[in-house]
Amino acid sequence: MPRNTRTSGSKRRTLSIGGATYDLFVRLPADIVAKHTKEGTFALPLGAKIIVKEIIECCGGGANNTSVGFARLGCHASFEGVIGSDQWGEKLRENFRREGVNSECVTVVEGEVTSFSIILSGSSRERVILYQSGTNRHLHDMMFNKDIMKRVDWVYLNHIQEGSCVIQDDIAEILSEKGAPCLTWNPGGHQIRKGMSEKDNAHMLAHTDLLVLNKEEAAEFSGAATTEEAIRVLLGSGAGIVCVTDGKNGSVAGEGTTLYRCPVAPGTVVVDTTGAGDAFGTGITWGLLSGMSLPEAMKTGSIQAASVVGTLGSQAGLLTDNEIRQRLKTSALVVTTHSL
């Protein structure tokens, strides 16, 4: 069980560290997608002028998603990251205000573009994401506010840019102190490619209460051939709980010598998978922070992810604490237990 979890008392305090992105969803007409999409590709004819079906603007980015998710679940949620002084940055800040997310640790960079994505979406869940990292790459130790991290109960470290990995030393230092917050870590691509044995990564793992990866990331990060082996190796690194998600196959988590398997929530309708991993990570973290057992927390993650993939965008489907508790009561999810 993670350190310092609380089941009652004052509002639980969370801090999400990482990126915020403004997303522009472009839904293409079905006939265009059918005509020009081949297996494994998403192609559009050069020189064509295509009337799109719909354009939807929404907020995204890993730390943005998790902070909003925690706020809706009743936490005193904070976000720490970097945005620009442009229209996209202002819309992100407005979303924080609307959702009740504390943004005192947001750094605004003048004259630069906020991170944004253009997501080309087909009628059968095909998608291509065009991404500009923008100001997200400016998160580093000079802008990292360590004081707020010392005041929260749980930190969620989302994907960060390569240049931002320098903050890992500061995070690990705080986590090694007495009374430190718990940590959920969802490593980014640069960290994954370096592997779990790299010095900074090994140091972080030793202080990680919950490590969340998808199946492909777990294999690359650990160097293991199977998911079970990856979980076993990563637990051996010092991580308290290791959870691996696998899309429609659900999730697998290890704690101590026990392995848990949780399926996808029954009846899940997939409209868009953007933000599914963030939703799952938010749900399972909130469950643990609320004092739930790991199997119950995994169910919470699955329910949260199922709600998000049923809508377009990464935040529209995020549930409140009352909604998720009610769905837990009526859920047919069964978590199976195995020896690890």
Which labels suit this protein?
14 strands; 4-stranded mixed beta sheet; 24% strand; 34% helix; 340 residues; 10-stranded mixed beta sheet; UDP-N-acetylmuramoyl-L-alanine:D-glutamate ligase; alpha/beta
Describe the structure.
- With 340 residues, this protein is α/β, with parallel strands linked by helices.
- It has a single domain (13-18, 63-113, 135-339), classed as 3-Layer(aba) Sandwich (UDP-N-acetylmuramoyl-L-alanine:D-glutamate ligase), CATH 3.40.1190.20.
- Helices cover 34% and strands 24% of the residues.
- It is built from twelve helices and 14 strands.
- Strands 5-4-1-8-9-10-11-12-13-14 form a ten-stranded mixed beta sheet, sandwiched between helices.
- Helix 2 packs across helix 10 and helix 10 packs antiparallel against helix 11.
- It is globular, with a radius of gyration of 19 Å.
- 47% of the residues are buried.
- The model is unreliable at 5-9 (pLDDT under 50).
Give a short summary of the structure.
This protein has 340 residues and is an alpha/beta fold. The protein is 34% helix and 24% strand.
Which CATH architecture would you pick?
Answer: 3-Layer(aba) Sandwich
Number of strands: 14
Helix-residue proportion: 25-40%
Q: How many strands, what sense, and barrel or not for the largest sheet?
A: 10 strands, mixed
| N-to-C order of helices and strands | EEHEHEHEEEHEHEHHEHHEEEHHHE
Task: Produce the secondary structure layout.
Layout: E1 13-17, E2 21-27, H1 30-36, E3 54-60, H2 62-72, E4 76-84, H3 87-99, E5 102-109, E6 116-121, E7 127-132, H4 146-150, E8 154-157, H5 168-175, E9 182-185, H6 189-194, H7 199-205, E10 210-214, H8 215-222, H9 227-236, E11 241-245, E12 251-255, E13 258-262, H10 276-289, H11 294-309, H12 321-330, E14 336-339
Parallel strand pairs: 1-4, 1-8, 2-6, 4-5, 8-9, 9-10, 10-11
Antiparallel strand pairs: 2-3, 6-7, 11-12, 12-13, 13-14
